[in-house]
Amino acid sequence: MPATYLPTLKQLQYLVALHDHGHFGRAADACFVTQSTLSAGIRELETLIGVTLVERTRRVVRFTPLGDSITAKARKVLREAEELGDLARAAGRPLSGEMRMSVIPTIAPFLLPRILPKLRRDYPDLRLFLREEPSAAACENLQNGRTDCVLLALPFSCGEISFEPLFDDRLFVAGPAAELGSIDLAMPADEIDETRLLLLEDGHCLKDHALAACNRPELRAEATMLGTSLHTIVQMADNGLGVTMLPEMAIRAGILDHTGLAARPLAADNPARRIALAWRPASPREKDFRLLAGVLAAAH
């Protein structure tokens, strides 16, 4: 019976890195090897399976259609190989070892400073690597195995996931006090001047949550959507350019400190977004994720 030669995990890692970076040098750096080592590893893989995966030119690295398909399969193989280690860790101490968590930008700067000290104190063996990125990228990286879990706001279409709801984060209308009216009362959505509304640009789910909560289709057409962060939006509002909507966690974290802005709770049918921790279904670290979710919920 002839011997069967299988691709090595190292070869698959090189292939995935090249696909992610589109450049041999950057892929080699990501794998902590020389460019010649990475290139030779991918050539060995191509020889082993008898097909060309990558078209090489001086300026461009272009994957063949079959190369794209095999890379997608390689991601799954690598993810399952990593889960072998996760199984061992799950059988040992809770919340220990490495964990990669993506956090969306409208949560990270407001919640993490409160929870990280507690995690370091209570779970010193946990090495939590954080990645701040918009919801779509975070969900894609979760599905591809680049991250282990995602701290995000729902509703959001994140593919096939398991998740643990943490808490509801109420939305507020923020702007100059004279423009908001009575700050002691919730502000009805129909009182928001659509021509003065400042929102985050496309790609941030908070914008969609705010618009959905208001249930006013004309807001999407009239609002100015150009803020790249909540801090930028606040500065624009503080300079008289309009009003905006902020999550309660940002206000509690002091985002309006040292400004002339006030905030009123939004009065609407669904005036909040739901903060949740999500992970891939059937992950061997599900108990860890649920434990982490409990820590996050208690610390908020």
TrEMBL record:
Superkingdom of the organism of origin: Bacteria
UniProt KW keywords: DNA-binding, Transcription, Transcription regulation
Every HTH lysR-type domain range: 7-64
A GO cellular component entry from the record: protein-DNA complex
A Pfam entry, by short name: LysR_substrate
The keyword Transit peptide belongs to this UniProt entry's keyword annotation: no
Annotated GO MF terms: DNA binding; DNA-binding transcription factor activity
CDD domains xrefs: PBP2_OxyR
Family statement drawn from the similarity comment of this UniProt entry: Belongs to the LysR transcriptional regulatory family.
Name of the featured protein: Hydrogen peroxide-inducible genes activator
Organism this protein belongs to: Sphingomonas aracearum
